Amino acid sequence: KVSRGTCRDLKETQTGGHELQQSTDWTKKNTVQNNSWLVLNRDGNPKESSPFINSSAASDVEKSQQYDGKNMALFEEEMDTSPMVSSLLSTLANYSNLPTGSKEHEEAENNEEGARPSKKPLGTLMGVYLPCIQNIFGVILFLRMTWMVGIGGVFGSFIIVFMCCSTTMLTAISMSAIATNGVVPAGGSYYMISRSLGPEFGGAVGICFYLGTTFAGAMYILGCIEILLIYIVPQAAIFKIEGLEGPEAEAALLNNMRVYGTIVLSFMALVVFVGVKYVNKLALVFLACVILSILAVYAGVIKTAIDPPVFPVCLLGNRTLLSKAYDVCAKVVEIDNETVTTKLWRSFCDSDSLNATCDEYFMNNNVTEIQGIPGVTSGILAENLFGNYLEKGMMLEKRGLASDTDPDSPVTSSNRYVLADITSFFTLLVGIYFPSVTGIMAGSNRSGDLRDAQKSIPIGTIAAITTTSTVYMSCVVLFGACIEGVVLRDKFGEGVNGNLVIGTLAWPSPWVIVFGSFFSTCGAGLQSLTGAPRLLQAISRDGIIPFLRVFGHGKANGEPTWALLLTAGICEIGIIIASLDSVAPILSMFFLMCYMFVNLACALQTLLRTPNWRPRFKFYHWALSFLGMSLCLSLMFICSWYYAIVAMGIATCIYKYIEFCGAEKEWGDGIRGISLSAARFALMRLEEGPPHTKNWRPQILVLVSVDGEQNVEQPRLLSLTNQLKAGKGLTIVGTAVQGTFLDNYTEAQKADQSLRKLMETEKVKGFSQVVISSNLRDGTSHLIQVGGLGGLKHNTVMVSWPRNWKQPECHQQFRNFIEVVRETTVASLALLVPKNISSYPSNGERFTEGHIDVWWIVHDGGMLMLLPFLLRQHKVWRKCKMRIFTVAQMDDNSIQMKKDLITFLYHLRIDAEVEVVEMHDSDISAYTYEKTLVMEQRSQILKQMHLTKNEMEREVNQKRLGTRQIFVNTDKGKTLLAEPNKDLFNMKPNQTDVRRMHTALRLNEVIIKKSKEAKLVLLNMPGPPRNRVGIENYMEFLEVLTEGLNRVLLVRGGGREVITIYS
Known about the structure:
- By secondary structure, the chain is of the alpha/beta class.
- The protein is elongated.
């Protein structure tokens, strides 16, 4: 029984499959006293055995009292792991979930002063709708919307708005489905994505969302400074813009933005650090500013229909003049019957006299004054319907107005006109506009504060998006219908006395909009600086990105101090960029990526039909989610293809980092679901038939033995398996434990842990399998029979050569080995038997030279060719050269054999030296006879040593009194061996055995002669005897065949071709 402290994740399946991340004050050092009964899972990590939230463990006395008289005695022993339904329901009903937002920090601060205030849960309006409205409406609406309509036209702008609003609406539908599929604790979109798509995607998207929110803070601050320096107090500029032209004026403006932006950022960070509760208290004030500003715009539109405001714009020919370039919109004026030149004349001429030398365009064109806001009934909409994209430095010209221009003459006095400050095009407008539809996650981020999150989140979010989309679309049409095109394209209101263009439309005064937008941008900036550090803290505390763990710490009340510092640092990057138009596409990327993954998560969960996918929100469909995902991806590349690639690169790097270095988390995510579905599909496909020779690869079942402590006895077997991994096949490491399943399950678990640990050490990617059987022989047989699944079964068995098999106590060991050889032959499995396995290299060793020698005596499907090729792919064997030896008999043409073998290897695309060894027939030597005889005598002795007591008595009774008796020393003293009539020492060896021994000795001589110095020798393993008589002799033959060789790999083919010359 293990209890865990702060912030422990409680698995929850009944109420929706997401973990209930119990985050009662991430902030304090208190411990959540939810003791849960834990067991060790297969990889040794603690895991809750119960999917529910268990009440605190009671002592036996309490338990007996608790269940006494409740008719529950029958289930008493299981109450620890399976709580009563009544206690479970009360635990779930009392479950409280505070967000990692700012509420609990506010309460933590209040706690210091007095008792904790009772928190009133919020409804749909206050909890979701209004926060979403506040987050969606923002700086772009006030500072760039009119300009976007002027540049893109009503038609183009409407398409942009519709596209962006559709994206957020589809994302909101997907988000509603995920948010209503169980309890969503704090962390909002990060929590939803990480629990739906797994820690890798969750971490990558969480960081993207964090960066998006941080850059949004920078954008709001830049908007705030732009309003301050251009519309409220232009004289406050440190770098004076007056008198500067072109790039110099632009640089001065950006430097002002940088200086003031840094000051405001520092101030805002300080406010957030000192106390979040002040930000929360001001939130409603900021929201009121936004709503009042929008209402003022609508009021102004209605007023234009009745009484259009007077906002004159002065044009020279068809070019818009700067307000500061003239005092009256005329070249000359009549004063006391005298013609006097104006400030405008002096701007274009070298003196104020009527016969002065003036700009050619000035002399050829008339000055006209037009109404900047002709009104909704004026029919100006038709003129503003289509786009008018401008190059940087181009003059704002009114359509349809005559202009006398000499195409050959250079443009002069351009600083007297309103000029385009950036080159504009459709995709740029998309990137700049998209941030004004973000903020749809505000409701789901507050899920812990809601009275009924599963009802409020969908209704509130979708209603907020509908409201804001309606406002945006109507604004596009109304701006186009009310305001003159040249005024719309005038980004900073330079042609209308430096007024905010949207302000010129507002009623009762432009200042309503100016101050309203100023306060709303301040508020949005503060909200971003409050939300982003908490999101980073949530990611840090999940522990999936190791290097971010430091940002999980904070002040005593949990304020994420370090995260706030990092956020301010990243925000400063946006401030240094200084241009609102450059920062907006950056955060568009990060938000679009986040929304794309929300849609992907919903689509995946729907298509996989996981049993746990039961959202309360029913109005979703996988096709809508895919459409939303496609729109997000398209918008990313439409906005800026290079920013999109950078954002994807960042997300990919984080994904791979978490995959390799991050914490292992099992969150029941959709990617795991995909893996299961894909694995099932692939396994079903494999069942359709055996693989083609070209697809054959060694799928190895490694049979290892464990000692009394359940540790693996031959770890180098796994090193060899790792060195064969170039085959990319399945690896199963199996062992057998003797006993019964009920009594020995713990030992089996321990053995499994030991196998997994060794596999991890040796970097063997595969599966471990432990079977419990009454004897090891049957256990090994079961592994060979049932290892693998469906078409993904092993086709090769690797088993170590039994050491000391000649010792009487190891008799059973080599019998088991021979049974494995027999079973693999019957099952048509290939067999690899490394001899002297302890002398094989570890994965860290490197051979700088040497040979891998293949002795190809009989053809067994090409295993002998394939194995050295796979070994040489590994760095241990890479520098070794391959040599192939084959044996020629008397009647073979060895020269032709060599040619054929070289051709065969050429077609196999294998580089190897080739040598044909001639073995002439020779007489069988006396040594061979003697060795065979000794072998057979030993076999007889070993056989008789293992007779049962009854058999031995029967043997003794059958013998005549004169029979010689042999005593053999064993551990238990002298053992009498009965002797048949034929004296053991007068035996004649079996002729078949003699022939086999002769072959083994001759081959061994040749192999020793040629391959004594080889790093590894591979040779064909002869088949076992068909009957069980003479199995000891078989072991002796193999021993003689490999005598004197350091590393030998005996190979038996599985009866099928494993290598082909065809492409």
